[in-house]
Amino acid sequence: MLSLVAALVLGLPVVALVARALLNGSLAATAGMPVVLDALALSLVTTAASLVLMVALGTPLALVMARRRFPGSFLLETVIDLPIVLPPSVAGLALLLLLGRNGALGAQLRALGIELPFTTAAVVIAQAFIAAPLFIRSARTGFASVDHDLEDAARVDGASERAVFLRITVPLAGSALAAGLVMAWARALGEFGATIMFAGNVEGHTQTLPLLVYSEFGAGNLETSVAAGAILALAAFGVLVAVRLLHWGRVLDLRSIA
Length: 258
Fold this sequence. Notes:
The protein is mostly helical and 258 residues long.
């Protein structure tokens, strides 16, 4: 009984949001509005770019964390996990103080002709900073679960380290990698606090869907805000379902190998 009550408490607010958007027609009516389409397009482009950044930087780091133990490794893991527990607004402020015009690296960036704050690139950086730990944690678990004997057998057969990684390690850790990517993408899609602090809320340039929800609500356009919120809620629900299916597939794969 208590579990049912808890499920209702957690689920009913989202159901109410989506139901209102569907029943009063606001979802269909506002889905084609230029401001919504621009925010959706920007969200999709920036989250895709942030995923590329997370994979490029996070995969080697996750592999090292899964395979190597060294003095201070727990500190490294703590630093990587820190963005998960930091308030997003604090994360955005930290990025601004590091990469802003007057930040710690501001002069060096200006010398290279680079200005990051309040640009689309700043949106990508904010999303990657907040969401990367989710991918790294999942990838680390996946790499740690790979049987080293299979990798060693491939090396004995003459496979290069690159081939071992791409043909043995990555496929065997594939479910965890995919789950991490999906969760990181969902977190990046819903990112608000760090984005508004570091990138601002400029329509067509830095205004993602979460920022549109905030802007439209503040402007008194409740139905547009509800519709944009419903899009985010449905996307998040789909992502969570996908992650669970990926983990279930991993269980099935392990059973079939056994």
